[in-house]
Structures are given as structure tokens and as C-alpha cells.
Amino acid sequence: MIPLRGRGGRRLATVLALVALAASCGSEAAPRRTSRLTLTTLLPASEKTFWEFVARAFERHHPEIRVDLVEGPESTDLREDLYTASLLARDPTFDLIYMDVTWTPKFAAAGWLLPLDEWFDARERARFLPAALAAGLYEGRLFRILIEPVTRGPTSDLPPVERQATPPRAKAPPPALPLPTRPGAPARAPSAAAAE
What we know:
By secondary structure, this protein is α/β, with parallel strands linked by helices. The chain has a domain at 2-24 and 33-142: Periplasmic binding protein-like II (D-Maltodextrin-Binding Protein, domain 2), CATH 3.40.190.10.
């Protein structure tokens, strides 16, 4: 998910400034009202359950922020069209973009994305695969972070083969099945040569 440049970022700064101003100007006798910032993103409907867990965990750590997950189409192309139409119309509905890697150049060139360089220093970037980081770059700036794979290679909880005490057993051949014949001919058992 990528923060938007423009209204989304300005809205965050404006809301935070207004909350601070309201908190400093209120009298002790008047009840204080707090506003909660809402960040909205569009994602495939099939992924909402997973992201609900992530969003609620984020909200527990940042109670001043609410995350609104909007169910969208499964098709990447359709979601791209919805985001593009919203961004072209300067509609402030979406604050975060859950985007496909192929959208990065188009969205960055249009000025719709906020560069992420200041939030991902060299130490943080080292956690990601080089190809995953490269896919998020546009004109040398980082505009997209791959959310899912952050490991450097396959993992397994099985010990390496050379550490096993006994070599693995060979699998038994599958049971012999009757060989197909011409229609109407009786089925026949496979010969020893056919089973090997």
C-alpha cells in the first residue's frame, strides 16, 4: 500500500494540525472532541479477511487512525481502472494504493504517488529482495514496497538430506492397473515390462 501525494497527505497534515489546535484551545469545562483520521484503500474482495486482521492490529497501535478496507474487483486491471479514474478526477476517496508492480511507472509519472525513500533507509531496504525493491523504483526513487515476500530464499523446517540418519526409502511403484484395450476386448493385466 502506498500513501498518495496531494490531498491524502495534505488531509493527514491538516487533520493532525486541527486536532492539535482544537486540543490547545479548549477550556477545561468544555468536553473535548477527538477526531479520528481514516485511511482508505481498495483491495481484492478475496483478500479483505487477511487485511482486516492487519488493519485492526495497526489501529490498536495507532488508535487515532482508522483503516477502511474497500472491497474491489479481483481483476488487477479493473482495480487499476478504478484507481486511475479516481486519481484523474482528483477524488480523495483512496489514501493508500494497493497496487500491482506494473502500475508503478504510470502512477509515479503522473505524480499520484508519494516517494517512500525517507521511510525506507538502507537498513530497512536490506530486508527486501533486490528485484522486489527495483520493481518499486521510478527514476531512482522508491514509490512501491512489496508487502508479501520479504525473505531472501526458500525456507524449510526439514533438516538437510546430508544430516539425516538414514537415507530416504525409494517409493514403491504404483499398483498395476489393467491396460486399455480395444472396445469390446477383455481387459488384460499389464506385463512385467509394462510395469517398469
